[in-house]
Write a structure and sequence with these properties.
The protein has 660 residues and is an alpha/beta fold. The protein contains 23 helices and ten strands. A six-stranded mixed β-sheet has the order 6-7-8-3-9-10, with helices on both faces. Strands 2-1-4-5 form a four-stranded antiparallel β-sheet, covered by helices on one side.
Length: 660
């Protein structure tokens, strides 16, 4: 079934009005009260326009160059230059105060000149106002730019996750991917909004103060630089090395916390069933404890560095006060200049401490850049090649030629498989567990590409056509259907959000879902909750079948679609399947031979090959593996009739005990 289309009707992006929202929530809506109508119009008049988002998702087109911070920021060079200009204005204005104070003391107070004091006062006030306005503009501007960049990055990462193939997700833990989308992007946002901007602010402040100090008194400045800076450098080098190791541990531990949380939430039913809740709490406490220890270590490092640099700064100020006082007494320095020098010296150490503290933000951002670079640099194993053509409407002639495939390089699941499926034919794949039945189906829908051989539909090699045009004509009904959080209607119309009520009701009726919907208090608008937790396994399967009916694919893959429904529903579903499959090609992965018998032909898959191929009657008469499986199944059915209707064992497993 297709994955394209716009948002489902009634979604937040589907233009639903308040009346529809109230109805969807099962609440009555009597309209807006007259006394509020005028107020509503005023609010609507002030509302900005929110056009529908334009999304151009192309599976085969993504950024193949390594992700880096500068590459990410370079399209916004103009915005960064504007931010730098505002930083220059704010920094220059904020550092004018001590110089004006020195002028006021030396030429105003000491010379008893009130006019100079007045000029200094208004000059200081103007500098404060200018600094405040520039800081306000800078914070607002960089904040908007930063959120815009984070928006682009989140869409970029999510789009890339949509492009990646299934093998990536089988080898990657969901919690780590959530970390990439949450804490790593947040760390990058902090690096830009706080780290880079503050780096410009503090760095420029440090340069300005150093230049001003040299202009005021070279002798005192050189003494200060030689006496204080080496000690500050030693403390800073120690801090950066310690924080490198500590922060790497913090980033790894937060990923472990989110991973363990994600797995625990996904497996809560199994955890409850096997009474593992206490064990899981203990395990999660240990995981969180490791994260706690890593943060405590970083807190200890900061507790050493902060007071140490404060002491160095105070020693420097006392030294300058002593030496500067002697120079004032000897007439080498004026009192106002010494006062300004001390104030600038106080401001000199603050940027150094701030820059070192920003090193944490920088380390966090750099770690996030590296992790995002690794993620965005992962190429899909199933790629849409450049120049792929649109697959025209297909009849359903499928051909596998010399197909070999393995999920890893050491072991092949399929070996030189040749299989032809005619248009409109229903072929059942049977065999022991792990024989490769599901793998054949996954290759046909191009979830994976074979290492050797080719697969074609109507003569078109699957690797030569666009993924959208291919999968829009294919439908998959898995054994364990996945339902999204939303209503039953949302899940049924997943592949066709624009389907009308008549079509949705017809699909539900065809698979017997209408009886389930009738029992629901809100019908099709009843919630499914995440993964369909509020529904039974059979009800979830019926929704998946209704979804396939509504999509009307040209080729349908059924992974034992009736295995989770009761006998009454199974008969109804199989009758509906006959109507759906009429004139369509179907690949049925059959774990029960009752399903396989209904197929046009049966392929016995074992040892990575097609061992037998033919109709049910032909294979039974041949006396091979299928005949043995069928005999086992028949005996199980007859035995089950004498044992309270117990289901017979899986004939595939009975025929091949090693598969167990």
């Amino acid at each position: 079934m297709g994955w394209g289309g716009g948002p489902p009707a009634g979604s937040p992006f589907g233009g639903q009005n308040s009346t529809q929202s109230a109805r969807a929530a099962g609440l009555p809506f009597a309209g807006i009260p007259p006394e509020l109508a005028e107020r509503v119009k005023q609010i609507e008049g002030r509302e900005p326009e929110h056009p529908e988002p334009e999304v151009d998702f192309r599976p085969g087109e993504y950024d193949r160059e390594p992700f880096g911070l500068w590459r990410f920021l370079s399209p916004h060079r103009g915005g960064l230059l504007m931010a730098f200009f505002l930083v220059v204005v704010a920094t220059g204005a904020s550092q004018a105060g001590p110089r004006l104070l020195a002028w006021a003391i030396d030429h105003g107070i000491l010379e008893n000149n009130f006019q100079v004091l007045l000029y200094a006062f208004f000059g200081y006030l103007a500098a404060i106002v200018a600094s405040m306005i520039a800081s306000y503009a800078r914070i607002r501007y960089t904040g908007r730019l930063g959120h815009r960049l984070m928006y682009r990055l989140r869409v970029k990462v999510f789009s890339h996750l949509q492009r990646l193939s299934l093998d990536f997700y089988t080898g990657e833990r969901a919690g780590r991917l959530i970390t990439r989308m949450t804490s790593d992007i947040e760390a990058l946002a902090n690096l830009f909004q706080d780290g880079l901007v503050n780096l410009m602010v503090q760095g420029l402040t440090l340069v300005v103060i150093t230049v001003v100090l040299l202009l005021m008194n070279v002798k005192l400045t050189l003494i200060m630089l030689l006496a204080v800076v080496p000690a500050m450098v030693v403390a800073t080098v120690w801090f950066t090395r310690a924080s490198d190791r500590g922060y790497a541990a913090v980033r790894d531990r937060i990923a472990d916390v989110l991973t363990d949380l994600s797995e625990s939430l996904s497996g809560i039913r199994l955890i409850t069933a096997f009474n593992r809740r206490t064990h899981n709490v203990i395990h999660h406490r240990n995981v969180v404890g490791a994260h706690f220890d890593a943060n405590v270590h970083m807190a200890k490092v900061g507790a050493v560095y902060g007071p140490a640099t404060d002491i160095i700064g105070l020693v420097g100020q006392l030294t300058m006060l002593l030496l500067g006082g002697r120079m004032v007494a000897s007439g080498e320095l004026r009192l106002g200049e010494l006062t300004a020098f001390i104030l600038y010296l106080t401001a000199f150490f603050a940027p150094i401490q701030a820059l070192v503290q920003l090193y944490n933000t920088y380390q966090s951002g750099q770690a996030a850049v590296k992790k995002l670079r690794d993620l965005l640099g992962t190429r899909p194993s199933v790629e849409q090649k450049p120049g792929a053509v649109e697959l025209p409407p297909i009849e359903g002639h499928i051909e596998l030629k010399g197909v070999s495939f393995g999920y890893d390089n050491d072991k092949r699941v399929l070996e030189q498989v040749d299989l032809t499926i005619e248009p409109g034919e229903t072929i059942a794949l049977v065999g022991p567990t792990g024989a490769g039945k599901s793998t054949v189906a996954k290759l046909i829908v191009r979830f994976y590409d074979p290492q050797e051989g080719s697969i074609s539909i109507d003569g078109h090699d699957l690797r030569d056509v666009t993924l959208k045009s291919l999968r829009s004509q294919l439908g998959v009904v898995p054994q364990e259907p996945f339902l999204f959080h939303g209503s039953i209607r949302d899940n049924v119309t997943f592949a066709r959000p624009d389907a009308g009520d008549e079509e949705v009701n017809a699909a539900c009726e065809a698979v017997g879902l209408d009886e389930v919907v009738a029992r629901m208090p809100r019908g099709l608008d009843s919630p499914c909750f995440e993964r369909g937790a509020s529904l039974s396994a059979g009800e979830r399967q019926l929704i998946a079948l209704a979804r396939a009916f509504l999509a009307r694919p040209r080729v349908l893959v059924l992974d034992e679609a009736t295995s989770n429904v009761d006998m009454r529903s199974e008969a109804q579903v199989e009758k509906a399947l006959d109507n759906l499959l009429g004139g369509r090609t179907a690949i049925v992965i059959a774990h029960r031979l009752a399903t396989a018998r209904r197929a046009s032909r049966i392929a016995v898959i074992d040892e990575g090959k097609v061992m037998e191929l033919g109709t049910h009657q032909e294979l039974v008469e041949r006396g091979g593996r299928y005949a043995e499986m069928y005999a086992t199944w028949t005996a199980g059915v007859e035995g089950g009739a004498h044992h309270n209707g117990d289901k017979p064992a899986d004939p595939a497993l009975v025929a091949n005990p090693a598969a167990q």
